[in-house]
Give the backbone structure.
Amino acid sequence: MRDVIIALMPATIVMLLFYGWASLMVLAVSCVGCVGLEYAIARWLMHKPQLFNGWSAGVTGLLLALNLPPSTPWWVVLIGALVAIGVAKMSFGGLGQNLFNPAITARVFLLISFPVYMTNWDLTGGFIDSVDAITGATPLSIIKEGLKSGMTLDEVLLANGMNPGTLIRDLGGSGGEISALALVAGFLYLWIRRVVKPWIPLSILLTVILISGVFHAVSPEQFTGIEINLISGGMLLGAFFMATDYVTSPASKWGGVIFGVGIGVIVMMIRYFGSYPEGMSFAILIMNCFVPLINRAFHQKKYGRA
Amino acid sequence: MQKKRRPEMSKLTFSIGGIHPADSKLARECKIEVLPLPSKMYVSMFQHLGAQAKPIVAVGDKVKTGQIIAEPGGFISAYVHSPASGTVKAIAPRKDLAGFNVMHIEIDVEGDEWAEGIDLSPELVTAIPEDREFILDRVKMNGVVGLGGATFPTHVKLNPPPGKTAECLILNGTECEPYLTSDFRILLERTDEIVVGAAIMQKVLGGCRCVIGIEENKPEAIKAARESVARLGYPDIRVEVLKKRYPQGGEKQLIDAVMKRQVKSGGLPIDVGAVVQNVGTSLAVYEAVQKNKPLITNVMTFTGDVVPAERQRNYLFRIGMPLSFIAEQAGGIPQETVKLISGGPMMGKAIACMDASTVKGTSAILCLGEATRRHEETPCISCCRCADACPMGLEPFLLKKLFTAGDLAALEQNAVQDCIECGCCQYSCPAYVPLLDNIRIAKAQVMGVIRARNAKK
C-alpha cells in the first residue's frame, strides 16, 4: 500500500501544481474523509476495529482525489468518500472483500448524481503558470459534442484551440489525468518494485491502441485516434492504478489479460458509440463484475497437471 | 540427432514458483563432531514412513551396538537397531518431539560394544557387490531410510515395481533449507563414501545415470564432489550445479530441475524414470552395503540466529539420544530462543518436548529468536504473492478461503492434495496470513476423502 502511495506521488504533485489550492482541498477532504470514515465504520458500526487499515483507506482517498475535478465542493468529495468506503468497501466486509473498486464506484456515483460538478474543469489557480486558463468541458467531451454537430475531428480540435499534433500538455482532465508522464513514472515504479504485474495495463492499452487505430484509420473524421485515446480521460490512471487493484482484478495472468481486453473494448465502445464522452470508470466497474467468473475459468499453471 | 549437452557452468532450477530466503548457514565452517554416549537412550519404533516397527527384544535383554531390536511392521517399514550396548530397561510409550505418544525401547547404556559382522575400519571400500539382491538385503537389514525428510524406506525405493525402470538417480545435495549444514558437511568430509553409495544405488537400479545436484551456495562441496567422481571413476555420475532457490530440494522440484520432467499429480517419481535420494541416504547405503553398518548414526546441526558463532555445531549423533542431551552437550538452549525447531526453519517441526529422542530423520535443533515471531494477521487482498511463490502452482489464498468456507470438493478441484507443505506461501504473504497452517488441515481432510473414495472402489 505504501508503494502505491509513493507511486501516485508524481501524479499528485502535478495535480497540485496545475490546479493549486482547490485541488489540495479536494485531496485533503478525500484522504481525511476516507481514512476517518473507515476508522469510524470499523470501530463503531461494525465493531471490528481490526478491519481498519489506514494505508488502504489512504490509497482510496488519494485515488478518489485524483479522479475528481479541483472545483468539486468539499461536501461532494465527502459524499464520494462515504460511497467509496462505506458502500463499496466496508459493506462488503472491508479490505479484501469488496467486489468493486471503491474509488471508481465513488467517482461513478458522483458522476451520475452531480454531473455538473463532475464535468467542469477549471484550469485557473495552478501553482505554476504553464497552462492557459480554461474553464469548460474536457477534451473528450468537447470532441464528442463537436463530432455530434457534424464537424470533423481536426476542425473540432482547431476550433477549440487545441493542436491536433501535440495534445499532451493541453488536455484538461480530472486531477490525476493531466500528466501522462507522471502516471507512467508511478506505474514503472510499481512494476520495478514488483507490486503490480504488467498484464492488465498492457492488455488494456494494447486493446485501446488496436481499436482506436483501426477505427481512426477507417474513418478519421468520425473517430479519435490512438494518441488522444491513450492519454486522455481516465485511461492511464485507470489502467495503471485502478484496474490493477489486487482485490478487484483476476488472480491469474491470463485472467488478467481477459480482464484488460474487456476493459479496453468497453471503454472504446463507450467513447465511440455511448452517450458519455468517457467510459474508463464504467469499463472497470463492468469488468469488476466478471472477476469471480474469470477467476473460476483461469488458474495459473500447476505442477504435474498439464 | 543427439541432444546437445549443456555447458558445465549453466545452473539448473525448477520451473514454477520458489522463494529466496536468507541463507543463514551459520554452522557451515564447523567440522562434524562425535557426541559422547548418554547414560540412557530411547529408540522410537516410528522413525520411518509406513507401519511402526515391532520390538523383538524383551525388557532385561542385553543388546549390543548395531543389534536389531525391532523388525518392520509391514511392507513399508524398517528395521531398527540398538544405538549402544547395554540393557533394555523398558518398552513403553513415550512422547516424541511433537508430544505424541510413540512406542520406544529404553536402553540403559553400558558401553559401546558392537555386534558381530560390522566393519568399523575407516578404509574406503570401492568394489561394489555384484549381486543386486545382496545389496537390497543389506540396505533393508540395516534399516536405511531416506534422510532427506520423508524417511521413506530406501530398499523399497530402490526396488521399482515391475514395468517401471529408473533412468536417472538424483542425489539430493541441495540442502535448500536455511541454517542446515549437515548435508554440506558430509559432502565435504565423507565425499568418497557418498559417491560410492551413489554407484551402489545406480547398480541396484540397473545402471541408470546419476546426477548429484548441489546448490551454487556450496562451491566447496561442488568441487569436492567433482574431484571425488573423477578420482573414483564410476561411469555416468555427474555433478550438477543448481541455483539457490527454495524448495530446490523438494523431490518434485529437483526432478523438474534436473530432468525437465514433472511427476503427475498423485504419481511417483519412478513414473517419470526418476529416483531421488538424499546425500545422507547415500552415505547410509554405503555404510550398510560396504561395511554392514546399520543406520544408527546421522549428522545434525545445532544452530539458530540466537546461537553465538562459537557455539554453532555439526554433530554425529547416535539415533535415540534425547534432544535435551544434545542441547546440553552444545552448551544449552540460549535464553533468547523463542522458537525451538527440529529441522529447518521452513519445513521443520516445532519441538514440543525436549525430552524426546532423536530419530533417523533428525537433521537439526534450531533455536530462533524474537525476529522470527509471527506477526498479527491482516486481511488478504488477493495480491497473489503466495500463488507466485507456490512451487506446485497452487493458489494458496484461494485454498485458504475455500477451507474457511469448508468446501472440500472445491479444495480437491484446486489441487490442495498436491501441496508439498514447503511453506513458500506463508513466507511470501505480506498480510501474514497463516496459509500453510490452514492448507495443511485442508489437505489432510481432502486426502481422507480421496482415500475413502478409493477404498470404496
